[in-house]
C-alpha cells in the first residue's frame, strides 16, 4: 500500500514538473514576441525619422562614460535689475524610453539614444534666492524634435514646474502657485524648440535652422514672463569668425534676442551666451542683457561622485 502511494506521489510530481516547464516555455515565447514587436516599432520609427550618422569624433567624446560639466559666470536680468550668479550646463548621453519618456534602466530595442542637457541657474533677487533648472532630451541622430523638455523654478514665493512631451503633438503641462496659471494642460502643433537648440549645437551646428522660423521659446521664458505657451515668429542666423560661431534667434525688439557663442570645431563647446529683453514692469521696465561666460569645463562621471571627498571638484569648476 505504501509503495503504491509513493508511486502516485511520483506521478503527481512528474506532472507538475511538466506543467511548470510548459508554462515557462509559454512565457519565454511571449517575451520573444514582445521583443519582436519592439523591434518592429523601432523599424517604423527609423523609417519615419531616418538616423543621421554619428561621427567617430562624436562617439569617442560622448560615449566615453563621462558627462561634460561646464560652469559659467551669470548676469541675469530680473525685475529690472542685473543679478550676479552662476550657471552650469551638464551634457551626457543616455538611453531614452520613447513611450513613457524617461531614462531607460536597461537595454531595449525600442530605446532612443539621446544627448541630455541639464541646465541650472542660481542667483539672488534681494533677500531671496532663485534656482532654475531645465532638462532637455534630444536624439543624438538629430532626426526629430526633443523627446521631452522640462523646467522647475524655485524661489521663496513658491515654485513652478513645466513639461513638454513630444508625442503626436506637443503635450504641455504646467503647475504653478499663481492663481491665473495654477494647473495647465494643452496641446501644441510641432515647431522648433528653443530648448533643443542647445543640444543641436553640440551634435551638428550645420543643421541649425536658419532664416524665418516658427519657434517655441524656452520654458524659462514663458514661466518668468507669465505668458501663454505658443510658437512665435523669429529670425535665426549663424555667423563664424576666428574659430568661434554665433547662433542668434531674434524674436523682435519688443520680445527677446538670444545669441549663443560656441567653438566652430568639434566638440562645439558653448563659451558664452547673451539674452536681450525688457525686464521689469510698467514705465520702469527697460532692455537689459543677461549673459553667461564660461569659467571651467570638466568631463567626469558625476553620478558616482557623491562622497564628500569629491566636493573639491566644485572648486575646480569655480562653484
Description:
The chain is α+β, with helices and mostly antiparallel strands. It is 24% helix and 45% strand. The chain contains 5 helices and 16 strands. It has helices spanning 2-48, 56-62, 194-203, 219-225, 312-316; strands spanning 67-78, 81-97, 102-103, 112-125, 128-139, 148-155, 158-166, 170-175, 183-188, 192-193, 211-216, 232-241, 244-250, 256-263, 270-279, 286-300. The chain has a 16-stranded mixed sheet that branches. A hairpin with a 2-residue loop joins strand 4 and strand 5. The radius of gyration is 25 Å and the shape is globular. The protein starts with a helix and ends with a helix.
List the helices and strands and how they pair.
Layout: H1 2-48, H2 56-62, E1 67-78, E2 81-97, E3 102-103, E4 112-125, E5 128-139, E6 148-155, E7 158-166, E8 170-175, E9 183-188, E10 192-193, H3 194-203, E11 211-216, H4 219-225, E12 232-241, E13 244-250, E14 256-263, E15 270-279, E16 286-300, H5 312-316
Parallel strand pairs: 10-11
Antiparallel strand pairs: 1-2, 1-16, 2-3, 2-4, 4-5, 5-6, 6-7, 7-8, 8-9, 11-12, 12-13, 13-14, 14-15, 15-16
Structure, briefly:
This protein is α+β, with helices and mostly antiparallel strands and 319 residues long. It has helices at 2-48, 56-62, 194-203, 219-225, 312-316; strands spanning 67-78, 81-97, 102-103, 112-125, 128-139, 148-155, 158-166, 170-175, 183-188, 192-193, 211-216, 232-241, 244-250, 256-263, 270-279, 286-300. 24% of the residues lie in helices and 45% in strands.
Number of helices: 5
- Outline the low-pLDDT stretches: 1-43
Please tell me how large the radius of gyration is.
25 Å
- What's the pLDDT, averaged over the residues? 86
Structural class: alpha+beta
Main beta-sheet annotation: 16 strands, mixed
- The H/E string reads HHEEEEEEEEEEHEHEEEEEH
What overall form do the CA principal axes indicate? globular
How large is the share of residues in beta strands? Answer: over 45%
Distance from N terminus to C terminus (CA atoms, Å) equals 83 Å
Helix content: 10-25%
Number of strands: 16
Amino acid at each position: 500500500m505504501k509503495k503504491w502511494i509513493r508511486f502516485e506521489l511520483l506521478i503527481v510530481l512528474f506532472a507538475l514538473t511538466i506543467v511548470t516547464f510548459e508554462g515557462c516555455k509559454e512565457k519565454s515565447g511571449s517575451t520573444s514576441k514582445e521583443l519582436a514587436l519592439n523591434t518592429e516599432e523601432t523599424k517604423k520609427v527609423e523609417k519615419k525619422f531616418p538616423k543621421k550618422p554619428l561621427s567617430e569624433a562624436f562617439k569617442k567624446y560622448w560615449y566615453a562614460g563621462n558627462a561634460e560639466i561646464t560652469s559659467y559666470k551669470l548676469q541675469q536680468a530680473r525685475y529690472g535689475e542685473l543679478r550676479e550668479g552662476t550657471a552650469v550646463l551638464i551634457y551626457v548621453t543616455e538611453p531614452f524610453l520613447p513611450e513613457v519618456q524617461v531614462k531607460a534602466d536597461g537595454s531595449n530595442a525600442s530605446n532612443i539614444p539621446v544627448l541630455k542637457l541639464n541646465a541650472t541657474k542660481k542667483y539672488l533677487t534681494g533677500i531671496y534666492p532663485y534656482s532654475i533648472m531645465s532638462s532637455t532630451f534630444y536624439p543624438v541622430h538629430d532626426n526629430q524634435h526633443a523627446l521631452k523638455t522640462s523646467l522647475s523654478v524655485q524661489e521663496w514665493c513658491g515654485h513652478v514646474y513645466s513639461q513638454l512631451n513630444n508625442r503626436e503633438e506637443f503635450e504641455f503641462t504646467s503647475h504653478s502657485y499663481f492663481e491665473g496659471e495654477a494647473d495647465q494642460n494643452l496641446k501644441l502643433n510641432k515647431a522648433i524648440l528653443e530648448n533643443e537648440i542647445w543640444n543641436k549645437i553640440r551634435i551638428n551646428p550645420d543643421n541649425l535652422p536658419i532664416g524665418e522660423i516658427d519657434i517655441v521659446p524656452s520654458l524659462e521664458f514663458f514661466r518668468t514672463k507669465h505668458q501663454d505657451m505658443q510658437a512665435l515668429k523669429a529670425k535665426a542666423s549663424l555667423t563664424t569668425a576666428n574659430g568661434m560661431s554665433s547662433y542668434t534667434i531674434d524674436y523682435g525688439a519688443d520680445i527677446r534676442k538670444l545669441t549663443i557663442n560656441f567653438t566652430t570645431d568639434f566638440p562645439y563647446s558653448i563659451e558664452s551666451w547673451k539674452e536681450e529683453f525688457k525686464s521689469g514692469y510698467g514705465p520702469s521696465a527697460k532692455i537689459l542683457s543677461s549673459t553667461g561666460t564660461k569659467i571651467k569645463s570638466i568631463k567626469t562621471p558625476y553620478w558616482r561622485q557623491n562622497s564628500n571627498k569629491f566636493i573639491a571638484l566644485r572648486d575646480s569648476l569655480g562653484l
